[in-house]
Amino acid sequence: MEIVRKNIKNLHLGVYPPTGRIRVAAPLRVSNEAVRLAVVGKLGWIKRQQARFEQQPRQSAREMVSGESHYFSGQRYRLRVYTADGTANVVIRNASIIELHVRAGSSVETRQKLMMGWYRQHLKHAIPPLLEKWQKRLGVRASTWGIKKMKTKWGTCNAEDSRIWINLELAKKSVDCLEYVVLHEVVHLLVRRHDGQFVAIMDKCLPSWRILRAELNGLPLAHEAWRE
Asked: 16, 174, 205, 223: least CB-packed within 10 angstroms?
């Protein structure tokens, strides 16, 4: 168990993939014994979370070769790799095939970087209209937003700086799941904690958010996204 001391009012307990590690953010004034008792009191919940991570399917390491399965916008595709001179790019050929066009002899890392760049461009176009929709409806506005790979969260919001980050892995998930995460972080501009007010806003704005959360957490995890 990892304990992080912070200048906060309340203790926060988290269980994170892929191994179900436990992390506690504890107020400076709370003793180690009090932290231990708090964790003991949550053992049942902790074990359920760890069991869920253990059962969740995970992709094997991607070698970026023809025949592999890759996900985009909630759909599963087969990868076809073509080598030739010219501009490297990614193309969705049809409902089941993604083509990766690269130079002969390109490394796995180069191919992965190309695919990640393609995912990032997709999110750069998909996120702004969702942000605008929910910011306008809730009367708030993020000062900045960005996309990055995160190991334990689909999104984060720094309410003090009004900054939102979205996980690059969401390019692989459905548009509905992406919208759920965007809304989740926008709501945090109003309400920092996952309390009754937060839940009430989520229920009003997106009644299906619990279903989307379960769908998101039940999808295969990317090998590269959860590397320790």
From this structure: 223
Q: Give the pLDDT of residue 48.
A: 85
The model's pTM is 0.73
For 14-69, the pLDDT digits (tens) are 887 666 788 898 999 989 899 989 999 999 988 888 787 666 655 556 788 999 99
Beta-carbon contacts of 191 under 8 Å, excluding residues fewer than 6 positions away, are 197, 198, 201
Closest-CA residue to 150 (of 130, 175, 168): 168
Q: Quick check: 34 and 23 in contact, CB under 8 A?
A: no
Residues 116 and 100: their CA atoms lie apart, in Å, by 12
What CA–CA distances, in Å, run from 7 to 29, 35, 38, 98, 139? 9, 15, 18, 48, 29
